[in-house]
């Protein structure tokens, strides 16, 4: 896949069995955006870290986000950064307005529901504990994203059986082909 990619893990980082980790291992040029405190993420601080990582990219990247980081991408898009990206692949967006949202994460609510100024795909599960399928669909509609529902897939992570996840990598490849270089 010929894409410059920055991965954005969710709260607590993506562990060794997570699809993001598998994809990074196969694509050593892809970079995971580091965060100072994975256990107590602060949205405003993380937005700045994402912006710095985009600035260090060779060209405008595609952001590959999971869970909490999907909302992070929406917050970054509203940050008035002078930098641009090619697109975003947003998997299992956690609902910052829901009771199930981790209390350790601060500054993510309310969910940003403005249209994203770049192409995007939202991938969601019908039984995700951090977002209802209706809310995930509403996020995709508000963001102007293509919406892909993959059935009962939990939180679409290693614990849900989505380690290597070739179907997701195929969807990301479709996004890479769709966006201009």
From TrEMBL:
SUPFAM superfamilies: alpha/beta-Hydrolases (SSF53474). Gene3D superfamilies: alpha/beta hydrolase. This is Alpha/beta hydrolase. GO terms for molecular function: hydrolase activity. InterPro entries: AB_hydrolase_fold, RBBP9/YdeN. It comes from the Bacteria. It holds the Pfam family Ser_hydrolase. Keywords: Hydrolase. Signal peptide: none annotated.
């Amino acid at each position: 896949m010929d894409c410059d990619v920055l991965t954005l893990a969710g709260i607590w980082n993506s562990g060794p069995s997570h699809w993001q980790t598998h994809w990074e291992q196969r694509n050593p040029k892809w970079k995971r955006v580091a965060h100072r405190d994975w256990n107590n993420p602060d949205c405003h601080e993380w937005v700045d870290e994402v912006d710095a990582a985009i600035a260090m990219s060779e060209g405008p990247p595609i952001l590959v986000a999971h869970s909490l980081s999907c909302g992070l991408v929406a917050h970054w898009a509203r940050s008035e950064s002078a930098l641009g990206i090619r697109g975003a692949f947003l998997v299992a967006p956690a609902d910052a307005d829901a009771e199930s949202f981790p209390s350790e994460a601060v500054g993510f609510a309310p969910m940003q529901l403005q249209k994203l100024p770049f192409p995007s795909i939202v991938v969601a599960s019908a039984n995700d504990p951090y977002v209802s399928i209706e809310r995930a669909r509403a996020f995709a509609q508000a963001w102007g994203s293509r919406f892909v529902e993959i059935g009962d897939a939990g939180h679409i992570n290693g614990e849900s059986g989505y380690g290597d996840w070739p179907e997701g990598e195929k969807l990301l490849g479709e996004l890479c082909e769709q966006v201009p270089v």
